[in-house]
Amino acid sequence: xxxxxxxxxxxxxxxxxxxxxxxxxxxxxxxxxxxxxxxxxxxxxxxxxxxxxxxxxxxxxxxxxxxxxxxxxxxxxxxxxxxxxxxxxxxxxxxxxxxxxxxxxxxxxxxxxxxxxxxxxxxxxxxxxxxxxxxxxxxxxxxxxxxxxxxxxxxxxxxxxxxxxxxxxxxxxxxxxxxxxxxxxxxxxxxxxxxxxxxxxxxxxxxxxxxxxxxxxxxxxxxxxxxxxxxxxxxxxxxxxxxxxxxxxxxxxxxxxxxxxxxxxxxxxxxxxxxxxxxxxxxxxxxxxxxxxxxxxxxxxxxxxxxxx
Length: 309
Ligand SMILES: Nc1ncnc2c1ncn2[C@@H]1O[C@H](COP(=O)(O)OP(=O)(O)OP(=O)(O)O)[C@@H](O)[C@H]1O
Prior knowledge:
- The protein is elongated, with a radius of gyration of 23 Å.
- It has eleven helices and 14 strands.
- It has a six-stranded mixed sheet with strand order 6-7-8-3-9-10, sandwiched between helices. Strands 2-1-4-5 form a four-stranded antiparallel sheet, covered by helices on one side.
- A hairpin with a 2-residue loop joins strand 9 and strand 10.
- By secondary structure, it is α/β, with parallel strands linked by helices.
- The protein has helices at residues 40-47, 70-74, 91-100, 106-120, 135-147, 165-180, 192-198, 216-221, 238-245, 270-280, 295-303, and strands spanning 2-11, 14-24, 29-33, 55-60, 63-64, 76-79, 153-157, 184-189, 201-206, 209-214, 227-231, 250-256, 259-264, 288-291.
- Helix 4 runs antiparallel to helix 5 (135-147) and helix 5 (135-147) runs parallel beside helix 6 (165-180).
- The protein folds into two domains: 2-221, 3-Layer(aba) Sandwich (Rossmann fold); 227-292, Alpha-Beta Plaits.
- The protein is 35% helix and 27% strand.
- Adenosine-5'-triphosphate is lined by residues 11, 14, 16, 34, 36-42, 158, 190.
- One of its GO terms (molecular function) is ATP binding.
- Residues 2-232 form the ABC transporter domain.
């Protein structure tokens, strides 16, 4: 459905997209995950032909994307980071206005608008002006305006930034429902938990490059970390830390504020071996966690830095 090849975008000296390659298939919820400034919004803007790029090709629905490709644009719903609604119109009037850009027929539009209101859970707020809404409700209105015409492809750029947990859940559930009804979705975020929760495939961006792409299982199998063990409230000497680093399957240790983190390759009994060692050395410890790798671990192993801000 979407094919981006060797996309290069410069802002003056800054290389914002560095030969980006992405392919999105019909029916996917495709996640673009990357820290702030990694190029997600720039990639979306180039994809929508809102921004000129220096090199590369962008195909949407099998055709080159261009500013005047209205046939493609009609079938795309866009929810951008900045809320773009009219302050002087009510919630319902705003949704009706944006839906009306694509759907002329009054009766059909009416039912689409009601459907969108229900979908984002704004039934109790239809007469309010945007200024009267909380940040989370405003974001939901922004989403309703972008999707009311029921497009085939929906592009959402960080729709849950600075949103309360209730609205966030509503938004994430809504995205999954839209997908189940047949929409293909591109979802950008720097929240790895969200991307893990809803996306069928994920591209991880860093400095304008796609550093890894695949299902979450594929991404996690690319890295060495099979298990991350955390032990809180433990007092260790340098020699203890060195000894733990030498245990089988351990390839990285970190110790800070009496908290030990041990990264192991996937193997049985990693935790037992570490706890046995501490007990043998008469070292007391507090809470213990063993976690499977996260997308943050994928990012950390590939780039050497944390995905979190
Ligand atoms: N109009 C612009 N002029 C100059 N530099 C820009 C412009 N827009 C973005 N940049 C820079 O390009 C890089 C990529 O920015 P972009 O907004 O695409 O990243 P992002 O991953 O979407 O980040 P965020 O999550 O913060 O929106 C950043 O270094 C940013 O500062």
